[in-house]
Write the structure tokens for this entry.
Amino acid sequence: MANSVLPGWPVALAADSIDAGCLRLKFSRAGDHPVTRQGFVEMAPTEVLDSLDQDTSVTSPNNKVIRIENLHKTYDLGEVKVHALRGVSIEVHRGEFVAVMGASGSGKSTFMNIVGCLDRPTQGTYWLESVDVSTLNKDALADIRNRRIGFVFQGFNLLARTTALDNVELPLLYAGTDSKERHERSMKALHDVGLAGREYHMPNQLSGGQQQRVAIARALVNEPSIILADEPTGNLDSRTSVEVMDIFQKLNDRYNITIVLVTHEHDIAKYAKRNVVFKDGRIRDDSLVEGRISAEEELKRLPPVEED
């Protein structure tokens, strides 16, 4: 299909291609009547978003943003079947800050892929606010990724020849937001993460921490239901990691933004409010963080960065 927008075909950002450092457009026909094919609902993305937008209970701080029940994921590799998830059930309420941990092969990455609508479960249900996304087709999932989930990756995934402002505007561009609103919301998002005055810098003119701030602003700009951060401090030094966690804490504490963060670093997990530990495809531990660290206070104790 040619990359042109036809009447009635909304454009959505295909977030599954960001990992490869590229952007893909997905097209889905608005107004088609939902039908079932291979167990997945062929629901038009506009209907999905209408369902989310009509959930008038989202103002309650105790709302369930994520509700997962008996989630299984099995990969069929011919003669071998790999059970990545084995009956996972969990709820995440609005305003929570959850760190997901586990060793390699524990199932945490598979869990995050399903939560991020990048993969479907083999069995079980996953509700994102008012929609059972475990039944949706690829086009509807792509639209939810663009409009309702903000992604922050370890590798930043910024477009190299594009300014910080333009990088942040991308999700709004694919959502069809007009240029004036796109500019205003992107400028605000950059200001919220402490990058006022650097809007027109290119990625190679920014430090690693500043690039990750741009990525966080891009995740924020569509006012998503949830931010998913996959090892966001993995490429950063110690002080810059704390600075990034300070941003996450302030977004969570001040704006009640729901954050789910994957990390293998125990010290990073202590900045969250709740830790969920995976092992062998199951949740081994789910508990509130005792002695939670304040990133803001930690930064005061760290020595200042020495200029070269």
Notes: The CA atoms of residues 277 and 285 lie 5 Å apart. Residues 1-46, 54-61 have pLDDT under 50 and may be disordered. The longest strand covers residues 64-77. The chain has one domain: 11-301.
